[in-house]
Design brief:
The chain is α+β, with helices and mostly antiparallel strands. The protein has 2 domains: 118 residues, Superoxide dismutase, copper/zinc binding domain (Immunoglobulin-like), CATH 2.60.40; 30 residues, no CATH class. The protein has 5 helices and 10 strands, in the order αβββββββαβββααα. The strands form 2 sheets. It has a 6-stranded antiparallel β-sheet with strand order 6-7-3-2-1-10. The protein starts with a helix and ends with a helix.
């Protein structure tokens, strides 16, 4: 039952986003030491990206692939710049931003969660690469719908208790 509700919510999110023509995505990039965030928006065929890494000046979108696989490069991300290192040897953040035009096949892979961000450093090979799977972000209104739908299911499931005051009292005041 849970799977049906979750699947219904995901399909509803996709339907609303398709009707609006916009999808939002995020990736949480990690390695053994650092973590950072990436955000993406797909509007029609335009894919907007903003990726932050810790000291890694090369970033790419790869796919199709799962979190445990290695996939070919789909496109390189445009480096905007890097902050200077922080005292104590901590690398500064590097920022990537831009827009690329996707094909229908690429959009299908993206919606199927088969893309990931891969980031590494050519200048500092001792820094561990970072990686994060690109995942869709549910619409807030759909989260509210999912909450109310779940609440309705709980109420309907316990409806016999609510109809009979005697059954309700016996369930609450058991010895």
């Amino acid at each position: 039952m849970k799977r049906i509700v979750i699947l219904s919510c995901l399909l509803a999110v996709q339907a609303v986003a398709q009707a609006q023509g916009t999808f939002d995505f995020a990736a949480h990039l990690t390695n053994d030491v650092y973590s950072s965030e990436a955000s993406f928006t797909l509007t029609d065929m335009s894919f907007h990206y903003r990726v932050d890494t810790v000291g890694l000046e090369v970033a790419q979108i790869r796919g199709p692939g799962t979190p445990d696989s290695n996939a070919p490069v789909i496109f390189d991300l445009t480096l905007v710049g890097c902050d200077p290192p922080i005292p104590g040897g901590i690398p500064g953040d590097c920022y990537f931003s831009g827009i690329v035009t996707l094909t229908s096949d690429q959009i299908s892979e993206l919606l199927a969660r088969q893309w990931y961000v891969d980031s590494y450093s050519q200048a500092r090979p001792f820094l561990a690469p970072m990686r994060g799977q690109i995942e869709p972000i549910p619409e807030p209104s759909m989260l509210a719908l999912a909450f109310f739908g779940t609440a309705a299911l709980v109420i309907l499931r316990h409806r016999p208790l609510l109809r009979s005051p005697q059954r309700f009292a016996s369930a609450v005041y058991r010895d």
